[in-house]
Write the structure tokens for this entry.
Amino acid sequence: MQAFRYTQAKTVDVALDPGQRFLAGGTTLVDLMKLNVETPHSVVDINLLPLDRVEPTPDGGLKVGALVRNSDLANHADVKARYTVLSEALLSGASPQLRNMATTGGNLLQRTRCYYYRDINYACNKREPGSGCPAQDGFNRIHAVLGGSDQCVATHPSDMAVAMMALEAVVHAKGAKGERQIALENFYLTPGTTPDKENVLEPDELITYVTLPRLAAGTRSHYLKLRDRAQYEFALASAAVVVQVEGSRIRRVRIALGGVGTKPWRSKEAEAVLEGKPAHTKNFEAAAAAAMRGAKPLKYNGFKIELAKQAIVRTLSMVTA
Amino acid sequence: MAISPIIGSAVTRVDGKLKVTGGAQYAVDHPIEGVAYGAPVASTIGSGRIANIDLSVAEAMPGVLGILYHGNCGPVYRTAGPFERNSIVSEGRPPFEDNKVYYYGQYVALVVADTFERALDAAAHVKVDYETAKPVTRMSEVTTPLGPAHRSYSRGDAETAFKNAPVKTDEVYTTPTETHNPMEMHATIAVWKGNHVTLYETTQGVVNMQGVVSQMLGVPLDNVHIVSPFVGSGFGGKLFPWPNTILAAMAARKLGRPVKVTVPRSLMFTTVGHRPITEQHIRLGATQDGKLQAVIHEVKNPTSLLSDYMENATGSTPVMYSCPNVKTAQWVVRLNIGSPMAMRGPGACPGMYGLDSALDDLAIKLNMDPLEIRLKNYAERDESSGKPFSSKHLRECYTKGAERIGWSKRTPGVGSMRDGNEIVGLGVGTAIWGAYRGGAHARVRLSADGRARVSSATQDIGTGTYTVMALIVADKTGLPVERIDSVLGDSSLPPGPMSGGSTATATIVPAVAAASVKVIGQMLDLASRTNGSPYKGVDAQTLAMTNGRVHKQGEAPESGIPFEKLLEMQQIAALEAEAQTGGAPDADNYSMHCFGAHFVEVGWDPGIARLRVRKTVTVMDAGRIISEKSARNQILGAVVMGIGMGMFEDTYYDPRNAKPLNNNFADYIVATNADIPEQEVIFLDYPDPVIGEYGARGIGEIGLVGVAPALTMAVYHATGVRVRNLPVRIEQLMKA
């Protein structure tokens, strides 16, 4: 870790220089600073900002402050009751200690667990654009099968963001040009030729809130995370499903995947297969196939394609049962 | 004298309160005034040499006190090696001996600064230029012929018997690199006073470390003091010193102030050992009814360029099952990796995974029950030596365990047992570990404050040695454990055993018992000499000590006098006796082993490729249990480790630069609490009549041996997939 300057922000109107970083829970930033992957000359601690509340919105949704801790969000009564998928996703991630520190805004900006990104002795296009991607022909069991490019195949590690993707969350950000709202669906970028740019935030923008839209009555949701061991491991494949069933038919469904994409992966293809159709295994399988149609396996991660399909099918079965 | 019921009872470990309240001081916890912090710089290449080290930036950074590397580190020596007792090192090359790089993550410099953070920051600013050679990281890259075996064994004519056998299996089984990863990282605080050095350490052998440090630093043995009262486990990785210990001592000497060096978790994967890969080619020949006719077990393992370590995976093979024709051979292949080191159940653990897996493959071929084939080939004596076993109750382990897991309800068909979404599978594995008792000194002191103190330069690596020593004194003197102080982990005490190879208990128990008997004898003598003693003039031979009281044999202890009263009468502070004991007297005439059986039940949910262990049952034939709670703790933990070995653990090296890619606890996965199901452990508790008075054999390793093959057989039973390359990964099972 390199020496850095530490200041505390008192208002949300803080402009950042390129060499500065916001510090919230620190569970990603400090970790990466210890590895010298992040070497800010100064960090701006935003923990004093009044962004730590969960409040109802006028239209019946929920407004989640960027500094709401993962533990608090997961255990919030409204989240547990109405946004089950989000509570489950949060509780499937990390460890209690990490969840007690990690924040909502920080989790959205969590960096990849790619081995090569996290070691400065390797080339990495995400860290140093143009330097190369050792994951392409390296040990890539944990890497992405969706959304990758020849520049980068790193997975986005967040569980929370996957659930929020299925909940059609909206990110609120504030920067020098004022406030704006970004649908989470449009928030993340696939690596393409600029894997260093992971989302549409401007350098001076700070996430202030995330809003979750109201869910129609009778909506059910579930998050299923598949991995080698039972706890404290990033997803090999995960599925978040939010569904509204009328009679035996699926009226509306939102499906997002984790562990398989270079970003939290919303699958409109899978949703399109299901909407208006009976909630039936055959349709679930068709949806799963549609979700993974464009998947590109690397040497060690081909099984993720089938695993993600299984996650989709099982989650749909559970949530429509 | 009869052994009292306190032996084998559920006494809470005597150091437990200190540990759960944070009072136990581990290596780096010792408060040392003026301590400086050493941060290592490690190589980022797998092979080559250091062309240049630029210290200019780092040296100018705030708080930096000095930077050691091969060009300035001063003298450091090699040990006299195996010729000299207590001078075993893990890696023959002293740190910073020259500019050569043998593996990724090898120490190339040590930055010392006034704070930990400044040391780390400066370490990141040491610029090292390398001349890089291509590292060789896989045995498959080594094309030179293996040549004659580096170790071999043969009885009968295994090749011919195999050729002629009516039923055969011929498979290769592999186990991955496993990294010890004790919770407490290797660490040292070195403090010099003149030409004397004290090292606060975390080690499985204070006596050996004293010898090594003396030799490598070139100071007399008397001038080296190793202090290691608590060890946050070792699993074999802390048996023998590694370079970090010497680096701390060298830096402290050079800078003239105490230096603390903690090995960071990432370097725990390169600089302090691992269990190396084993590649095991096993051929079994058998009759149609499953009787073994030939066992041929050939094993290759990699080692580093700096160690001759062999993973003796064939060690148990000649002993385990009955078979007239057995051949084993082992080879070692040198690679650009850090040096391997014995890890819990070395040899036997991967070896029995191979052998028991091969036996299961034979059972599958013959449509035989896995338990039945083990009983069919049960060895009644050690066929490698012809000697009888000192004590073997393995058959009872099998039958008791089978009963507890519900083996009789096991339907043999693959995938034939279901529970909801899960397919259930059951497997069994055999545990074996050689029992050994060596030599040790111990001292026991009875003081006027009514307390006893027992001491020996051994260690408690979490296994319960403190408690075992106290229990033996309690048994001999009749004092409650609360009035006994166990002291260990200090090289200035009478030399005791290393905590390794499951030998510490069997070795220290006789020494503590002998010292206890000796000091009690002195006390009885005192009773017969002391004015005012009710037994003055009575023949000491007719006296005894019970419940801490001296009394006449055959009379109630309450009729006697507390020993502290006798000391008081004579104005003596304490009586103290030291005893030295050696190996078991009759050991040469017997084959001494611990045995056990593991039963594992797994659940496989094919709809989501989820494999979980549902239940384990372990029955141990491990001699008499001295300390029930810590013994159970040992076996429970070993089975947890076995689940990790079966399903998770695998250090993988990048073949391009030899870096262990998953060198942290997020990526190197071991079992978490949520992975551990209901575990049952049963001790048969038959004393071994040969190993000593108490009949106690060691139990550190045995619990891990045989878990993995039980697990992979259960996986086969559930999925139909025979996993012969550990760990079991879901992608292997998804092909089912």
User: Anything to note?
Assistant: The CA atoms of residues 84 and 355 of chain B lie 36 Å apart.
